Amino acid sequence: MAQQQKISLTRYLVEQQRADGLIPGQLRLLLEVVARACKSISQAVNKGALGGVLGTAESENVQGEIQKKLDIIANEVLIEANEWGGHLAAMASEEMDSIYVVPNRYPQGEYLLMFDPLDGSSNIDVNVSIGTIFSVLKKPDDTPGVQEADFLQPGTQQVAAGYCIYGPQTTLVLTVGNGVAMFTLDREQGSFVLTQEDIQIPADTKEFAVNMSNMRHWDEPMKRYIDECLAGKEGPRGKDFNMRWIASMVADVHRILMRGGVFMYPWDKREPEKAGKLRLMYEANPMSWLVEQAGGAATNGKQRILELQPTKLHERVSVMLGSRNEVERLTKYHAEKA
Ligand code: P6P
C-alpha cells in the first residue's frame, strides 16, 4: 500500500485557512510557534535526570505550589518562543503571578496566549506523562495597550486551544473551532505530522477518572454519581465501570478524547471558598472547548464551563467533562440537589 502522505502541521493550518478562514496568518504563526516550543519542552522532558532538569526549584508559584525546575524551563521556552513574533499582545501562565506584556522592542499583535506550561508536574520525577495546555483569545479592540482585564473573557471567546502531551509519543492536539486534530511528533523529521482529525468522544462510557481519596469531602451529587458507578451491574447503572486517575489532566483528557470517559475534579468542602482545584483560564477552558469540539460536554456541575465569566486570572473551577451522557447525568444530579 502506498505510504500514506504525511501532512505536516503547517500544511494542515494552511489548508484549514483556505477552507474556512479560521486561521488568519498571525494565528497560524502563533500555533506553529507554540508547537515549536512544545518540541523544545519535549526534548527537555525526555532528557530527565540526564538533563539535570528534575527536582524542584527553590520557588513557589502564584498557586502556592513548589515549582519544578521543568515548570520554569517550560514557562521560559514558551515566552521566548512567542514574544518576538508580532502575533501577541501579552501572555499569561500558571507559573506567573501577573500577565507578561510583549516588550516594546517587539511588534505587538492582537492575540492573548494563556498556558499551563507543564501540567501534572508532580509526575515529572516519576516519569509519568505530563503536558502543556494552551488557550488563545483575541485582545478586545476597544482598549489601548493590554491589561489583565483583557484576559477575563469566557471560554466561548477562544479562537484556538490545545495541548501537547509528553508521553510515549509527543502529541499535539488542537482545535480552532472546526473539530479536533491530533499531530504526532516525527522525531526523525523533527516535525508534527497529522495522525488523526475530527476526533469524536463516544457519548457513553464505562470509565471514570477522579481522585477517589477525596470522596468524603464531595458534595452529595458527586457522591451519588460515583456510588452508582461503583455499584456496577447490580446497581442503578446496570453496568460495571473501570477507573483511571493519572493525576495529570492532559493525560486523563487525552485518554477521554481517544476512547471516551468522564473526568472530574469537583468542588470539595476542605476549602469551601475555593470553587475547585483546576484553573479556569488555562486548564478548564481549553480542555472544555476541545472536549465539546469532539462531541463531549464540560460543566462545573451547574453551568457549561465555557460560559463562565472569569473574575480573576488564576480563577479555579470545579470540572466535570467527557462523554456527553455522563456529563448530562452529573448535571441532572446537581440540578436535583439545587
Ligand atoms: P491530585 C496536576 O497537578 C493537576 O493540576 C491536574 O493535572 C491533575 O488532574 C490534578 O492536578 C491532580 O490532582 O489532587 O489528584 O494530585
From TrEMBL:
GO terms for biological process: fructose 1,6-bisphosphate metabolic process; fructose 6-phosphate metabolic process; fructose metabolic process; gluconeogenesis; sucrose biosynthetic process. Gene3D superfamilies: 3.40.190.80, Fructose-1,6-Bisphosphatase, subunit A, domain 1 (3.30.540.10). One of its GO terms (molecular function) is magnesium ion binding. It is found in: Cytoplasm. Binds 2 magnesium ions per subunit. Residues 201-334 form the Fructose-1-6-bisphosphatase class 1 C-terminal domain. Mg(2+) 1 binds at E94, D116, L118. Mg(2+) 2 binds at D116, D119, E283. Its cofactor is Mg(2+). Its EC number is 3.1.3.11. One of its GO terms (cellular component) is cytosol. Keywords: Carbohydrate metabolism, Cytoplasm, Hydrolase, Magnesium, Metal-binding. Pathway: Carbohydrate biosynthesis. Residues 8-197 form the Fructose-1-6-bisphosphatase class I N-terminal domain. It is an enzyme of class 3 (hydrolase). It catalyses: beta-D-fructose 1,6-bisphosphate + H2O = beta-D-fructose 6-phosphate + phosphate. InterPro entries: FBPase_C_dom, FBPase_class-1, FBPase_N, FBPtase. It holds the Pfam family FBPase_C. Its main location: cytoplasm. Substrate binds at D119, G120, S121, S122, N211, K277. It comes from the Bacteria. Homotetramer. Belongs to the FBPase class 1 family. NCBIfam families: PRK09293.1-1 (NF006778), PRK09293.1-3 (NF006779), PRK09293.1-4 (NF006780). This is Fructose-1,6-bisphosphatase class 1. It comes from Variovorax paradoxus.
